[in-house]
Design brief:
Blueprint: H1 11-16, H2 21-34, H3 37-46, H4 55-88, E1 93-96, E2 116-121, H5 126-135, E3 138-141, E4 150-154, H6 164-169, E5 176-180, H7 199-202, E6 204-208, E7 211-215, H8 218-234, H9 240-253, H10 257-267, H11 273-288, H12 294-297, H13 305-321, H14 330-335, H15 341-352, H16 363-366, H17 372-415
Parallel strand pairs: 2-5
Antiparallel strand pairs: 1-2, 3-4, 4-5, 6-7
Helix pairs in contact: 8-10, 8-11, 9-11, 11-13
Length: 418
């Protein structure tokens, strides 16, 4: 991703010489969780800046890259097997994310960290798809949410990993298979997006390294990437790599005027699609330099644009750097998309004061081989961390609320959208 700005070549070694081993450990952990560790290594090599990093850090990044290359090969073979199951069972499907993003959003599969397989399944094929997976040894994992996709996992023995970073890039870390019945579920966000129902009619057969598969057409693939990022922003967890890959797409296709005409026409009548596109594209441009095409920029403006721009200026970039996981200021953004004030009051209360049991730590933690007592301790520690987060993040939201209200009113007045 050489076109994406990361740092000045001459300044990097000087600035980073003062960074010690403990800081680099934290940086590596952040790169892992942001999904950009291998992208970072790739960029440092191409910018001739690798000599500015400590040798242990280079070794850790190279290990991640090597492990992920092996993992990627396993994922491709697993993907080939899954599509084979679906084709044998005459399942009508389209691949989402993963291999379908190559090469438009990422030039090399080994640069990405992938943890699941996502498929859009036609309503009439859901039963056949589930049966095909269950016959192949996959088992359903449900959380009781009828709007959520069906999630399947291979039944495998527990695996021990010496450290979390090894687990994240290991071929032995299992991948789930997510069967989506629609590209957007209203779910807990309570935001209705009136998507068309012709995605399968517009789908295309693609190939990657000799593997044929059905995927969304280019315009619909981008629309899904935008909606996927938008939903995860609102849910306080969206990896930075999502914006890096969208920025790569914008750089690659910025001059494809025919594509942007088609994309503009596609989103014109979809409620909230222009606002979500403006939000995601602006963040991608500010974070990684992916330019929004001039022909599209004006078409994305709506009465909501001034409020979105204010939110991006005050919270967007900082929140994105922490993968939107450090505060609850996304509630200011969420409010702009809810029409009913009583419904918003319910959503906000649930987000500020969640009454449900804290989510369990990620499966990757338990795949490091903890005992039953160790697991219990990890769950308790995780619950305490989540309670601390809700307390501090909720307090910051309450402190910011009056300031946001005033600034939003001023911005709307200045734009004539009061």
């Amino acid at each position: 991703m050489d076109e994406l700005h990361l740092a000045n070549r001459e300044d990097v070694p000087v600035v980073w010489q003062s960074v010690g081993p403990p800081e680099w450990e934290r940086v590596l952990a952040w790169l892992d969780m942001s999904g950009i560790a291998i992208y970072f290594l790739h960029r440092m090599k191409n910018a001739n800046c690798l000599h500015g990093l400590p040798k242990p850090t280079i070794a850790e990044l190279e290990r991640r890259h090597s492990d992920n290359q092996i993992r990627t090969e396993a994922i491709l073979q697993e993907f080939k097997t899954l599509t084979g199951f679906f084709e044998q069972a005459n399942v009508k499907y389209a691949v989402l994310k993963g291999i379908s993003l190559l090469p438009d959003y990422c030039p090399d599969a080994a640069l990405r960290t992938q943890y699941d397989h996502d498929f859009l399944i036609a309503p009439e094929s859901v039963g056949a798809a589930r049966s095909a997976l269950e016959s192949a040894g996959f088992r359903a994992r449900t959380d009781g949410n009828v709007d959520a996709p069906f999630i399947y996992r291979k039944v495998e023995p527990e695996i021990r990993f010496p450290q979390k970073s090894q687990a994240l890039y290991s071929t032995r870390l299992g991948r789930s298979v997510d069967l989506h019945q629609r590209l957007w579920e209203d779910g807990e966000e309570r935001i209705h997006v009136n998507l068309p129902d012709d995605f399968f009619e517009r789908a295309q057969v693609r190939h990657w390294e000799g593997i044929p598969f059905v995927a969304l057409c280019d315009e619909d693939c981008l629309l899904f990437q935008i909606l996927h990022a938008f939903k995860h922003i609102l849910r306080n967890w969206c990896r930075l790599s999502v914006f890096l890959e969208i920025a790569w797409f914008l750089n690659q296709r910025s001059s494809d005027f025919a594509f942007w005409r088609g994309f503009t026409g596609r989103i014109e009548s979809v409620r909230w699609a222009r606002e979500a596109t403006y939000l995601v594209f602006t963040l991608a441009e500010q974070l990684f330099g992916g330019p929004t095409p001039d022909s599209l920029r004006d078409r994305l403006r709506t009465p909501l644009t001034p409020a979105l721009q204010l939110w991006i200026e005050r919270y967007g970039r900082q929140s994105a750097v922490s993968n939107f996981n450090s505060d609850k200021c996304t509630l200011f953004l969420h409010r702009e998309f809810i029409d009913d004030s009583s419904e918003w009051a319910l959503i906000r209360r649930r987000r500020l004061f969640p009454l449900h049991r804290p989510h369990r730590p990620p499966a990757v933690v338990f795949q490091r081989g903890f005992s039953a007592v160790g697991r219990m301790w990890m769950e308790k520690a995780h619950a305490v961390r989540r309670l601390k987060f809700h307390g501090s993040a909720g307090l910051r939201y309450l402190i910011e609320y009056p300031r946001w209200t005033v600034l939003r009113r001023l911005r709307l007045a200045a734009s004539g959208n009061v």
